[in-house]
Amino acid sequence: MLNDQDFMRYSRHLMLEDIEEAGQQRLKQAKVLIIGLGGLGSVAAHYLAGAGVGKLLLADGDKVDVTNLHRQPLFDSFSIGYNKAEQAKRRLACINPHIDIEAFEQNLDASNLAVQISHCQLVLDCTDNMASRQAINAACYQAGVPLLVGAAIRFEGQFLALEPAQSHGCYRCLYHPEQSPPMNCANSGVVGPVVGIVGLMQALEAIKYLTGAGNVPFGQLKLFDAKVHQWQSLGLNKDPHCPVCGDQPCN
């Protein structure tokens, strides 16, 4: 049940007929895993903590670097050299001390990735490499847990919501594991607010999913071009031969 503190803290949510007390209670009872606490994850985590998601699991084995600070607002100059997940936990606890936050100071491998995902209602993929994205996608589909994927580079952003119970394709249908892109933030750059926009989309759709407010665009690849401020939406069809979500997926 919501207490008096909750009613004050989340009063702006409670005013919304699409959320109200029942939706806020669902947020309080939710458990969400955020993998990657860089530009995407630090923005999404900030808003989910503020929204009152009851249990946040934060996983990242990287340390804060000075080059991160223009797009990763949970960190500051005093965070440099420290683990991102632990620093994010410290900052989020200041933003909302009434939620439970657990930090994993190492990258999740195949075994503990599956275990942690199986205990969650929702996963946010905020990583920056193809191997991690494919592993998270496969684990989410095996566990039947919805997944919100974000990506950004230069002036371009991507957002993809996946629901294993639905008939659309998965991340493996969109990208083959060997399709690892040659460009990344380290060698091609990125405009900080573009990363923030995609991270905000992940947080927004997470709140909608957990509260039941509105429709989450499952199975639609959203492409953002910041230079012309345009969004493009593409449907993601299932590959019947996909080893993750196809007619005869590999287990």
UniProtKB/TrEMBL annotation:
Gene3D superfamilies: NAD(P)-binding Rossmann-like Domain (3.40.50.720). It comes from the Bacteria. GO terms for molecular function: nucleotidyltransferase activity; sulfotransferase activity; thiosulfate-cyanide sulfurtransferase activity; ubiquitin-like modifier activating enzyme activity. Residues 10-244 form the THIF-type NAD/FAD binding fold domain. This is Thiazole biosynthesis adenylyltransferase ThiF. GO terms for cellular component: cytosol. CDD domains: ThiF_MoeB_HesA_family (cd00757). Keywords: Nucleotidyltransferase, Transferase. InterPro entries: ThiF/MoeB/HesA, ThiF_NAD_FAD-bd, Ubiquitin-activating_enz. It comes from Bowmanella pacifica. Belongs to the HesA/MoeB/ThiF family. It holds the Pfam family ThiF. NCBIfam families: PRK05690.1.
